[in-house]
Amino acid sequence: MYILILILLVGTSIPLITMSEHYAVLLIYALFTLISFVLISKKKLQFEHFIMALLASSAIPHSVTLGGLNVSISDAYIAVMVVLLVIFSKFELSIPKTYFVITITYLAFCALSLAWANDFTNGLARLIQLIEFMLITVYVFYNIRSTKFLKTMMNWYIGLATVLGAIAVGYSLAQHVTGPLYILGFHKNALGSVLGTSIPLIYGLLLLNKDCSKKVKLTYLFCLFITVFGLLMTMSRGAFLGSIAAIIVLLYFTNKTKQILGILGLIAVCFGLYAFILSPSYLESVTRFDEYSSAYSRVIIYDDVTSKIKEHPYIGHGVGNYFISIPQINFSQDDPNNIFLLNLVELGVVGLVFFVLMILYIVGVAFKNKREFKQNHELLTLNAIFIAGFVARFVHIQVDVSWVRGPGLFMFAMVGMLLSLRKIVKNIKQGS
């Protein structure tokens, strides 16, 4: 069953990366959708079987340009899944209503901001991306019907992250790399995001499967070791911060607050051993702050974005309409390396308020789940894993580019699965 799905995924993913006529990829994905439809309609497979690798596909941010839009494997994958989901739900959309009301309000203001944006094209591309992450991704993952599939999806993601981590570690050791790691077309921060977000998932599944066999525990511990070591190799400071914050959140939401200081101490010891003994040049590279460093560039970016926020403090410059260029380091990007500043400069105070309401709702659901699931170890731990995974990426984008293909989908996949827990419980109660 899974072999068939892998063949279908590989058969559609490879052309997306390698074909020069990228529009032909649309035909391939149309064929994939048709085959999926036939197999599910004949009850050969469940919808969830096809979605198994969707979370893992977010670990591959590489993209091609189709119709002026950058499209990654996960973008194309989720487009197929949402079509199948709508068809097989017989167009009866099951959505988290409160979340959708808040998010659609935010996205509606983003759309309205195109009216005063200087570059409509950039704004439209960003709006499409936000709709994909905040609405489509959440809708698809919200409709997963059992905790079994939720855990399987995380295992697929962890598996791919471990492979990437092993490649990163092997390459670093073989080539004696001491600086930031760039491999397989990954930027160090993109690879760091994949490895950093996998850490709370691995640790959470260890807590969830506390009575599992020794073999399973050793497998998870091996994955944890590889991803942590690989994360160190990337030198992605944002990913470091995100993974540490996520572990703290995970322990808090699983009522293991006494372990937080111990875990932080262990992290400090491991980091110290690596930075001061195994690779003394590592700490110098991470703390570099000269005028050609990425850390110093953030000072210039923050000065620039602050001045632009003052120009239009209430409604911003329009979604997708921030851009900065720093010629002396050959640097340019459309993000101030902070999600709150990005909202302020593009959407002003009004847009920021809508965004904060969305985040507060997500966190509020996690706290509500924590109270209601306190007698159910599985649901309590899954809730903790999903909010921790969300936090890992959310903290990262306080110091890095916010809306990136792959990691952005992962972030809101965590939201969809977090919200799905209450629906799963409700369906179980109705079934009994």
From TrEMBL:
GO terms for molecular function: ligase activity. The chain crosses the membrane at residues 23-40, 47-65, 71-91, 98-117, 123-142, 154-174, 186-206, 218-233, 239-254, 261-283, 340-367, 379-397, 403-421. InterPro entries: O-antigen_ligase-rel_domated, WaaL-like. It is found in: Membrane. Keywords: Ligase, Membrane, Transmembrane, Transmembrane helix. Residues 223-356 form the O-antigen ligase-related domain. It holds the Pfam family Wzy_C. It is a multi-pass membrane protein. Its main location: membrane. This is O-antigen ligase family protein. It comes from Ectobacillus funiculus.
